[in-house]
């Protein structure tokens, strides 16, 4: 079901920021990836650090540090006829704690939320559980909340993982 | 009943000129024999000495499935010790890496050991008087791996006395390490950026073979690199080609590109793709780097170093390096159907940061558990691990561009799509597997 998102006329309320973060996870779970990509600003990054407390995304390796072009490649690839690692397709499921609004900077049009979550990714007989904290840096563009940076810190970021194919 | 233990002829029979038996990938008994023989008779990568820069620094890892410690001694040497207290068998170090100070102290009963492994002290030592303790295994301290070589920072160990000396085992293949290291204006590398650890439910040899398999990129990676190419085509005209696109697109090069790049095989299972060019040849120049290299080496030598674009160099049995981007992948065997892949990256000391930034981007786009290229490959390995159970055909084919006159342990440059390097690895497998049986 598509949820109607009202156009904001002023700064978003905390509840509007929280609703946005929850809807973003729902879009991933429902595999509405093209719509999901539209939630990101053109200069956005999706960052999944490799190290605990990592501060540098460029001279320290990350699991993911992807701009919109790279995210689009992923979204297109998931649909591909010769994407064999998605035959059969993966599915995923988020359980979020209520997001907390950590910072509001209306002058800079920037809002930061923090969301502990459990994420399950499955493919055929295999099901894996991950625990993470998502930090969203949000902004408002044309009355819509948009993501400038989504940072996903896995509680076991340095562990040896098998394939993680969708988005946390 | 044991099928292969004590039966050297049965082991030899598994490797034919152009095909190998599926038990090399699926049989757990054979895996255990690999750990006892193949991974003991060959020089296996331990780590880089920049991981233990100071006296007392240690790094815990494995050689085959044997837990070991790489340790920097007080005199600056790097030792490799078995990571097991001689008393009750407890792993001596508490962290994966760290600094032991002047000695190791077992966390169970406080037995302590010098950095070279020898026994330093035991609490309540009187309890061992007149027990003949001096002649016990325990009195020897932490067992030391006897054959260790530090080659320009890269530390290798050979567990058995059998096998070849370091120089004879690697021979001219060390030129790939040399080229990677010489790319630093001061000829030195440093581990940097963190290690990507990616668990694979497949046999370690599938990964090693894949490193010189040049007929799979345009097929298996059509989904990732091919999609990248399609998405890039829709970029607004005039957009500067991003580093990520530079990294992805060469994977979709046609067969002719890979045939022309060439493969070089060396004795003892080593070999590399990309003799004349590679997927790394056309990366953008990094500002200032060539000038630094020219200042350090002179223009001709700098050009010679940077014109080398070796793609993947396989050091038998289980690592691969990419000289042009300072990356090392370690295919760590865990079980017949389980392999931990560690992808390490290096900083060229005194070179621009941008080189490390590109190397790290390559590593996360290609070698991470979140990498779409990684997903493509692992899917194929896991399908093979499953398919090899089929009894309808027990053999894996490695026949491409085989010539019956092909010699074992030769140094040859040939067509870049040959499976000679795979055959080279299996001949080496047979040789080092059986030499101590």
UniProtKB/TrEMBL annotation, chain A:
Tagged with keyword Oxidoreductase: yes
Lineage: Bacteria, Pseudomonadati, Pseudomonadota, Alphaproteobacteria, Hyphomicrobiales
Signal peptide positions on this chain: none
UniProt KW keywords: Dioxygenase, Oxidoreductase
Annotated protein name in UniProt: Phenylpropionate dioxygenase
GO molecular function, one term: dioxygenase activity
InterPro entries attached to this UniProt entry: NTF2-like_dom_sf, Rng_hydr_dOase-bsu
Protein family: Belongs to the bacterial ring-hydroxylating dioxygenase beta subunit family.
Matching Gene3D superfamilies: 3.10.450.50
GO biological process, one term: 3-phenylpropionate catabolic process
Organism listed in the record: Prosthecodimorpha hirschii
UniProtKB/TrEMBL annotation, chain B:
Domain of life: Bacteria
Boundaries of every Rieske domain copy: 43-157
Annotated InterPro entries: Rieske_2Fe-2S, Rieske_2Fe-2S_sf, Ring_hydroxy_dOase_asu_C_dom, Rng_hydr_dOase-A
Gene Ontology MF annotations: 2 iron, 2 sulfur cluster binding; iron ion binding; oxidoreductase activity
Family annotation (CDD domains): RHO_alpha_C_AntDO-like
Signal sequence coordinates: none
Keyword field: 2Fe-2S, Iron, Iron-sulfur, Metal-binding, Oxidoreductase
Family, similarity comment: Belongs to the bacterial ring-hydroxylating dioxygenase alpha subunit family.
Protein name: Oxidoreductase
